[in-house]
Amino acid sequence: MTDNVTGLDHPQEDRLFDRVVAILEDARAQVARTVKTTMVHAYWLVGREIVQVEQGGKQRAGYGERVVEGLARRLSGRFGKGFSVPNLRNMRQFFLTYSRGSALPKELGGPGKRSALPIVSRLARIRSAAPSESAGRAVRLFPPSLGWTHYATLMRVTSPDARGFYEIEALREN
Fold this sequence. Notes:
The protein is mainly alpha-helical. The protein has helices at about 10-55, 60-80, 85-95, 150-155, 160-174, and strands at about 115, 120, 125-130, 130-135, 135-140. The longest helix is centred in the first third of the chain and has 46 residues, at about 10-55. The chain starts with 10 loop residues before the first helix and ends with a helix. Mean pLDDT is about 80; it is low at about 115-140.
């Protein structure tokens, strides 16, 4: 008798099931990597925006802190957790530390050499300084295998050479 639920008597169905499971697991992993990379890029952009507003302020020290506090309050009201004053300071520091994106060489999954060219998003209200190798062709700022937690830790390494070394090791060791 054949078990139609498990396909125990149908090795071909078992192989089909295994292939479909692999496809779906790969797709889910890709979605997770895409979300992680997109959020790292978003945090970099948030940091950049904060730095640009602070630099435009006349009384930089007090003004910058008030800007971050007000932004944290409004973003937390709109998006909930994750946009506290310390988190926004981390995003600001992230941009200052990685103003040109990841230091990883292209052969290790990094963005390689590029120049920052302003690109206007589809929303037209949001400016982005996504690096570009040629006008209109955006390049990744950060490798998809390193997330925000990696960069939040790496940006605290003061030596750029040491930070680059640890970024490579984090990538290699997953």
